[in-house]
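Quick note —
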Amino acid sequence: MVSLGKASIEPEEIVSFLKKNIRLKEVYREIVHQKIINQAAQERGLTVTPEEIQAEADKQRREKRLEKASDTLAWLEDQIITSEDWEAGIYDHLLKQKLSEHLFAQEVEKFFAKNRLNFEQILLYRISTPSEQFAQELFYQIEEQEISFYEAAHFYDTDEERRHQCGYEGKLYRWSLKPDIAAAIFSANPAEVIGPLKSEQEYQLFMVEKFIPAELTQETYKDIINNMFEEWLASELNHFLYS
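Predicted structure written out below.
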């Protein structure tokens, strides 16, 4: 039974809710993922020490600004979990990290070297519009300096969140873009307006603020190793379910 204030929920109700909202399969897969990780880690003699759990717990407390023990207890109560539940979750998180490092740490540099071009990055701005004609009109207005790219994005982008950020899409890898769009964007110059380009049902304009050369940074290392691990996990899940 799970309780929050005066409300109590039976495990059967949780399962029923997940089924009705078509979320049971998602949770089921996450549970099986953890079983696969636990088994693979055990086979390789990997474990997590109490000291590592404590260090990660301290890190999370700092990030959540839980300065006092009473703050931590109040947070745990609000999350409807015990300190043991929290530590068990930390154990699973750290074990996944250790397993991914064990499996793929030696392959990251070779993978990066082979796929270096795909790890070029950009700071990208985007405007999505419902019609090619309107996108073309915006393109001309920006080119003639009747309106800036940022203003056009703020007023006309179909994506609400991006409108608030004046078209800012974020820092993206080349591989995260569709090949035709990536080719057009990476052959342009900084601040050049690109498009309109068709994407699904919309027409889009792009502008690159900055090109970032491929470099095996800590962030890129983590992205590569996480992608390798997720591919491995998906393969293991398929084997677990259907072999």
